[in-house]
Design a protein that fits this description.
7 helices; six-stranded antiparallel beta sheet; alpha+beta; elongated
Amino acid sequence: RIFPPVLSAFASLSALYALCLLILVFYITATGKSLKNKIHILEKNHEETITQNKYLQRQVDLLSAIREASLVLTQDVDFQTIIKKVLDIAYQLACPICSLHDELTLFLKDEVSGKLTPLAQKKGAQVVFEEELDAQTIDRRNVDEALEYSRVFFASDGEMYNWAFPLIADREIIGVLKVKTLAPPSEDKNNIEQRIKELQEYLTSFSNILALAVKTPMLYNKAITDGLTHLFTKRHLMNELPFYFEIASRYNEPLSLVMFDIDHFKNVNDTYGHPTGDAVLKEM
């Protein structure tokens, strides 16, 4: 009489225990999946945060480079000094790995012929200017196209990235910046494409500052130089004389000022016309 009720009670308890185990297993499984999802989301957020931090750091680097280049323009007016400093800044921005193969070449458009002439090249720690450049060895790939179509050109052979950036100042193309940089270590395709895109955006932004860096001393030189003879103007002479006088006085050295005049120059203008007079003056 006692055994059947006990057996029934035991069966009920066993069923209840099994149900509790099933519920516990289900809860643990659901919790495990939820935790895995949360871990996956956290890992993804962590990766996105790292990527965002890298992007923000590159933006900071870009703004710092622009600021440094802007300061150069306010501190100097010598053409070669400005170009050297700005190319140094651009080199640090464009060449994160900085190999011996990286180079930046600045081409300037001739106002008369409209053709591009290599003005300066930054390679390694050295900046070489026009008179020391070997035009035959300079890579001109896509340079003329960037000038003609006024847009950025990019090419890659797997090992090197090649860009040609038009330099535009006051809505006028004044030259082209050619950038050759070693491709970064192999990553997945999306990262490489993103890196190329970002680097191109940074260099495009910086090329505006570079164009201004080229234009500023050009305008200054035009202001102090006579267009016909390419000699300094009288105003520039009068501005510079006190400086040289102070130097001569400080070091107790002689200072000489040589002046000469073209005799009967007015007769040349009156007889042959002012264009001929200009030619004579220029030749002299």
